[in-house]
Amino acid sequence: MTSAVLPRSIQAVALDRLYSDHHGWLFGWLRQRLGNAPDAADIAHDTYLRILTSGRAPQSDDSRRYLVQVAKGLVIDLWRRQDVERAYHEAIAHLPAEQVPSPETHWLIVDALMRIDAMLDGLPQQTREVFLLAQFHELTLKEIAERTGIAFITVRRHIQKALVACMLACDA
């Protein structure tokens, strides 16, 4: 997959051409895979926006493959967000109506959860495993060390690393 960094004026022409030549095709491709027009339209729009903000344009013979690569990443992001929102709705489903967070708070919570999800995805596998054992299984550092065969001090370092990453993700 090749792309080139182009000067702004050439980039605008290239993006305009890319859009006019392939937008209809990309929208149809996305609609077929997503099963609905609104999400397909949003992802198609975000695909071109991502290309515009990256400053990179595909070579003309590689356009559709490049669009698909960018769009697939955005579809995965959409599905992840939908999974997080579904889990959030399940978590608050038992709350009395007066305790259900407002739509604004809902958005802020889901956004924070998405950042934490991305942070967890970016952690080394062992750090993520140790952190999740501590947070969701409520294991002590000693129990995690025994369960994983990792030294106690190393478990503590993994927890510290994950907590710092979590704080940074929430401040973003």
TrEMBL record:
Keywords from the UniProt entry: Sigma factor, Transcription, Transcription regulation
CDD domains membership: Sigma70_r4
UniProt domain RNA polymerase sigma-70 region: residue ranges: 18-83
Alphabetized SUPFAM superfamilies for the sequence: Sigma2 domain of RNA polymerase sigma factors, Sigma3 and sigma4 domains of RNA polymerase sigma factors
One Pfam family it belongs to: Sigma70_r2
UniProt entry tagged with the keyword NADP: no
All copies of domain RNA polymerase sigma factor 70 region 4 type, residue ranges: 114-166
GO biological process, one term: DNA-templated transcription initiation
Molecular function in Gene Ontology: DNA binding; sigma factor activity
Keyword Magnesium: no
Alphabetized InterPro entries for the sequence: RNA_pol_sigma-70-like, RNA_pol_sigma-70_dom, RNA_pol_sigma70_r2, RNA_pol_sigma70_r4_t2, RNA_pol_sigma_r2, RNA_pol_sigma_r3/r4-like, WH-like_DNA-bd_sf
Record-stated family: Belongs to the sigma-70 factor family. ECF subfamily.
Name of this protein: Sigma-70 family RNA polymerase sigma factor
Organism: Pseudomonas denitrificans
